[in-house]
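Forgive a beginner's question, but might I ask you for the amino acids of a protein and the tokens describing how it folds?
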Amino acid sequence: MAEISIAAPPASPTEAADHAALHRTLFIALAALLVVLPFIPVIGYPFFLMKVLCFALFACAFNLMLGYGGLLSFGHAAYFGFASYVSAYTAKHWGLTPEASILLGTASGAILGLAFGSLAIRRQGIYFAMITLALAQMVYFFSLQTPRFTGGEDGIQAVPRNALLGVLPLSNDTVTYYLVAAIFMAGILLIYRIIHSPFGQVLKAIRDNEARAVSLGYRVNQYKLAVFVLSASLAGLAGATKAVAVQLASLTDVHWSMSGEVVLMTLVGGMGTVFGPIVGAAVIISMQNFLAGLGAWVTIVQGVIFVICVLVFREGIVGVIGKWLKKPL
């Protein structure tokens, strides 16, 4: 019987060096773009840019689990939204500094991810996806029924932006934007490091052929739980940062539709690519922002674009570009 490969053939040292150099250049270009974006007319609105960056980090966190771990979750809004509530509540009612409230929000996402992941990884495929959806709906109904903590249908509004480290005035939108940009860059660099580490290579092997990975002696469930918690933690970081930047935590953050949106962002941009979720998030949030005048028709436009991407860009926007360039993006 022919041997079954569990991963793509490894690149030669020269190819690997070329790919690393390309990614390094793209990261530098992205960082430079983030510096100048607030000064670009039309799109240089800090509030809009902060929202894009928060959702881009959320999509990258989701892509870590789906694109590299092969785990499809329909409940990632639970970690994003719950962390958003924790961050907003501690900032507004406890008077914590932004860095403390964001860290607590991230920690809450990690703890919730550990609890939910321990249950969900016991099943595979559609059953795994349905368990994550059911658990996320529990978080949604908890948020709805505990108005003292979440504000109920009103959410937690007017979240204060206290001085960062007691020095930087986050009341200034531009200063807050650069904080969000720094968190975003740190998050995607961490994700990049994870997927290019030995841990990341094992994840790809499990994604491609789980049975073969088990036969090689890997403790598959431990790797699945680890990537689940990492993804939930980064989703929590995105949600906590969004609550401080946008000054709002609401039921929309934990609703099942938010889980659907992050799936859409990942697929439109390019699942299993480093930069695809960033592009996907930018496309979806831009549509919601610039087409807001269409009202409910925005969702129709999103659906049409999603169908077009599935039919024309099967690998996503960045995936297709990478295929044309013959370079992994």
User: Anything to note?
Assistant: The longest helix spans residues 220-246. The chain has a mean pLDDT of 87.
